[in-house]
Design goal:
Blueprint (H helix, E strand, L loop, with lengths): L2 H31 L4 H25 L1
Helix pairs in contact: 1-2
């Protein structure tokens, strides 16, 4: 692998990690504010995290 490819892959992984972390943190805040909506919030969080991971995998393998 070349250096630019390795740097690009690292940036993709870092970006996906930050995105999923922000989603998780925001979901926890939302559940703390409205515990009765935890099921819907958790479902939306998991779908969003899966989409981010899918985009990250596609970006890693496309390069």
């Amino acid at each position: 692998m070349e250096i630019p490819t390795i740097v690009g892959a690292g940036l993709i992984v870092i970006g996906a990690g930050v995105g999923i972390g922000r989603i998780g943190g925001s979901a926890m805040d939302a559940i703390a504010r409205q515990p009765e909506a935890s099921g819907k919030i958790q479902t939306a969080m998991l779908i969003a995290a899966a989409l981010i991971e899918g985009i990250a995998f596609a970006a890693l393998f496309a390069g």
